[in-house]
């Protein structure tokens, strides 16, 4: 594998950008490699500047349900650009987009578009705190909710990979109201509510955590969160930045049959453009300016290009439910293939899957929480990552992320991947 051009660009990149990247996990530092610089991508394939081709399981970390640059979505975008790239004055497509999201998510009445998942969760918390007139929030170890100060506590993938439980630069005062419990631990939730229940403004949770590998929330855990927040008049926020429109067209409401009070979206609803959204019941969203007193704004929020891409993406997902059955089938095939690989090789590892999110954990299962995840053999994973990459497959360069399937991944892609992973496991474990 020739990486000459990537290496050259990387050298220049480190001069002008911290670590040469605009988001830490892209640096490949965790796996001891230099990053790849990408030239283009199409469908399930991604190509670096040296001309290497990979089957892509990063898929922009989740947004690309239909793969890279699907013509059903990108065709027509030039027309939109010619009409203007941003107005700062309302457009009809923003209304269409909001309507699609609200109709797909029966738990909410209204939605506000923002530009990232981080903005969505940060804003949702502000609204929930104002609505309840309380300050404390409860989050779970290993769940990532973007990088706003109050939520950057024990927060998964990037922070686990780089061993930063809480980032410097976040004042203690800002996180003193952030309570943290173990994921999937019902007793811990009951205990914390017994102690602080009447001060808790909101509980924020990933229904399936995609930021410590793939760790699905147990049905009874999510149900407890629903019941206990109702009992204490706290706001239940589902952070569906990864799971939204991925697990199911009706997101976690469809997948788990549980309705939160508020929801955060990102990733998929922008189909690869910078988008986020938060929504809730009308009485909660009435807190948001200009109706209510909670200030939250955005120069590029509801941007016409992002709305065009996002709306088309959601319409395709809405009108073609077979996409979800197909994705489920392909993800099952991949997960079963990985299981059979580790069995054949006698490795006591674990495969978790939820919908089209798959993760091979380098540890004995079951993997139900952050503590379980930290038992993974990272040095083995890093060797494995390199072997997989050599075989033309791009995984997230960390143990603590999912393999993201898109509907552009073909059966041949998956069969090739299973075989290549078998060889990579064998070599990296000296078997
Ligand atoms: C990616 C992610 C975020 C942050 O979204 P950005 O668009 O990167 O700011 C928040 N929550 C979850 C669950 C995520 O996976």
TrEMBL record:
GO terms for molecular function: glutamate-1-semialdehyde 2,1-aminomutase activity; pyridoxal phosphate binding; transaminase activity. One of its GO terms (biological process) is protoporphyrinogen IX biosynthetic process. Signal peptide: none annotated. GO terms for cellular component: cytoplasm. It is found in: Cytoplasm. It catalyses: (S)-4-amino-5-oxopentanoate = 5-aminolevulinate. Its cofactor is pyridoxal 5'-phosphate. It holds the Pfam family Aminotran_3. The modification N6-(pyridoxal phosphate)lysine is found at residue 267. Its EC number is 5.4.3.8. Belongs to the class-III pyridoxal-phosphate-dependent aminotransferase family. HemL subfamily. This is Glutamate-1-semialdehyde 2,1-aminomutase. The gene is hemL.
């Amino acid at each position: 594998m020739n990486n000459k051009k990537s290496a050259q660009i990387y050298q220049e990149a480190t001069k002008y950008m911290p670590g040469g990247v605009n988001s830490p996990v892209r640096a490949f530092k965790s796996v001891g490699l230099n990053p790849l610089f990408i030239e283009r991508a199409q469908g399930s394939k991604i190509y670096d500047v040296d001309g290497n081709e990979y089957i892509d399981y990063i898929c922009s970390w989740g947004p690309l349900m239909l793969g890279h640059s699907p013509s059903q979505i990108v065709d027509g975008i030039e027309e939109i650009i010619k009409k203007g790239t941003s107005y700062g004055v309302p457009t009809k497509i923003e209304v269409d987009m909001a309507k699609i999201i609200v109709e797909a998510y029966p738990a909410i009445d209204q939605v506000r578009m923002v530009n990232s998942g981080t903005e969505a969760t940060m804003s949702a918390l502000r609204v929930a705190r104002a609505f309840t007139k309380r300050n404390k929030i409860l989050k779970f170890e290993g769940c990532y909710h973007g990088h706003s100060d109050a939520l950057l506590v024990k927060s998964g993938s990037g922070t686990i990979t780089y061993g930063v439980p809480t980032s410097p630069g976040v004042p203690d005062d800002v996180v003193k109201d952030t309570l943290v419990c173990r994921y999937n631990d019902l007793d811990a939730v009951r205990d914390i509510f017994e102690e602080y229940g009447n001060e808790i403004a909101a509980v924020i949770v990933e229904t399936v955590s995609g930021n410590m590998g793939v760790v699905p929330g147990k049905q009874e855990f999510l149900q407890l969160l629903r019941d206990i927040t109702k009992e204490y008049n706290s706001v239940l926020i589902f952070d569906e930045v990864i799971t939204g429109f991925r697990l199911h067209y009706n997101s976690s409401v469809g997948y788990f049959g549980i309705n939160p009070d508020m929801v955060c979206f990102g990733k998929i609803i922008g189909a690869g453009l910078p988008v986020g959204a938060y929504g809730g019941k009308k009485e909660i969203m009435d807190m948001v300016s200009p109706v209510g007193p909670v200030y939250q704004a955005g120069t590029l929020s509801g941007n016409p290009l992002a709305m065009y891409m996002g709306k088309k993406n959601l319409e395709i997902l809405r009108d073609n439910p077979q996409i979800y059955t197909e994705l489920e089938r392909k993800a099952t095939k991949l997960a079963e293939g990985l299981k059979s690989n580790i069995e054949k090789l006698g490795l006591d590892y674990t495969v978790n899957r939820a919908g089209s999110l798959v993760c091979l954990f380098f540890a004995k299962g079951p993997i139900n929480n952050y503590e379980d995840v930290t038992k993974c053999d990272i040095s083995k994973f890093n060797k494995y990552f390199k072997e997989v990459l050599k075989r033309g497959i791009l995984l997230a360069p960390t143990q603590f992320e999912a393999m993201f399937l898109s509907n552009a991944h073909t059966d041949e892609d998956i069969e090739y991947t299973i075989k290549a992973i078998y060889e990579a496991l064998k070599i990296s474990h000296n078997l």
